[in-house]
Amino acid sequence: MSAMAVTGDASVIGPKLGEGREAEIYTWGNDAVLKLYRPGFGGHRTENLALAALDGLTVVPRLIEVIERDGRIGLVLERLGGTDMLTLLQQQPWHVAGFGRALAATHLAVHRLTAPGELADVRELLTGRIGDASLPAPLRGFALSMLDRLPAGNRLCHGDYHPGNVLISGGRQSVIDWTAAARGAPEADHTRTLLLLRWANPLPGTPLVFRALIAAGRSVLVRKYLRTYRQASPQPLQHMDLWLTANIAARLSEGIDAERTKLLNLLNHARRRQAH
Question: Is the pTM of this model over 0.85?
Answer without folding.
Answer: yes
